[in-house]
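I would like you to help me understand the sequence and structure tokens below and explain how sequence relates to structure.
___
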Amino acid sequence: MGEWSADGYRRLGAAGSSAAALGGWAVGTLPAHDPWGLWVPHGPAVTAAGYVLAYGGLTLLVVSWWLYGRAGASVRDTLLTLVWWAVPLALAPPLYSADVYSYIAQGAMVLEGHDVYSVGPSVLDPAGPGADAAASVGGHWTDTPAPYGPFFLLLARGVAWATGGTIVPAVLGMRIIALGALVLIVWGLRHLAREHGRSESAALWLGALNPLLLVHVVGGIHNDGLMIGLMLAGAVLALRGRWIAGAVLIGLAMMVKSPAAVALLFVGVVVGRAATGSLVRRAAKGLLAPGLVAGAVVVLVTLLGGTGFGWLGTQGVAGRIHTALSVSSDLGLGLGELLRLLIGTDPDPVRSAVQYLGLLVALVLIAGLAWRSAAGRTQPVHALGIALVALVALSPMVQPWYLLWGTAVLAATACEGRARKVVTVLSAALVYETQPSGSTPVYGFVLAGLTCVAAVLLLRREAATRELPRVPEQRRPKDAGAEADMRTASH
């Protein structure tokens, strides 16, 4: 295999990425109106061809990624492959989600002085900056307040100001931020892998070259990439003793998306274990110091940004939207409907109760992981990766790209064990859950399920192949004769 195979898979994946991007020009998440006339709907024939290209290219990318991970590529080759696979998606319209239109519209709202934490993009002037983005926002998000922190909204405001909210340049401006986040993720993965004695190329393969990340951070422009990059960088700095700078970065990550706050707990474990003095003093420093630093950053940026602290009260808005990937929401909905049929109760309080129970279980698991890492039973950053996966699994709203929160951490900390295999299989499968247009059709779940089955079977086959005993080759007759001649000569 070796280098030639890695080079071949790189080219194969680039072809898949290019096909997926080209298909996105026909069936991607196109805006409601593009004054430049570039990202516009096409006729049935072009749309059908676009779906063939998009799904065929995506499958080619997933297969290439899976095989590339077994080709023994170097760090340099993997970085080159990342560029080859990311560039086509960076030049495409938004793919798999309309969230970027919300980002642009919310940036325009900040620019115009609206309170983004009390109203949605529908308040924008239809003839003003950001109007095309607001018209392109998904239906249930049009009147939904922003759940994002002030640091991210200031970045979105800068993009809206620089581009006037015009769709194509504004989307590309947000994509530049996403590509910057990808660079930060690469840096964090490499340095975390070194800190944990793991392979850098393996960390990059799962954490950056991952098709789930490419299609949703580069193609879909989700701000989760920025949160992950800042969080990884903060963890690296904390492990190197620069925990104040690490807490600052994690504070900024929290002001992109709030789940980054989980990282503070495990950075606190790192700080506490490295501290000197009594047990009480070490515990107090670990529990309080990183949080105080991050809290100060949050207050300062919020005051400087002028957006107010309303974002602290909008963190639950996403939970009102049902997503089929949320186990707690599915169980709550099913139980609520069952009780409604049996005794006529309102199903909504039942669903909410189950959702809160799921979050409670997640918090208990996170606390347990922090305790284990504080006791030295597991590495704190590795425990952070598991904690983030648990949080996603038990959250009231789950999107496919949320898996990246923990996967990026585990990519640099996990050995070839169960956790790494689980996130690898799910990464390959969840790329199919969402259409290029951003919708979630039933067949997407079917494709994801089939991919899971195929990936598990491949992993079992690989494990069985490694465990096969090596049978020594039988000596050929002439070899045996030659050996006999040698014995005769020795006498």
Summary: Residues 475-491 have pLDDT under 50 and may be disordered. The first helix runs from residue 2 to 27.
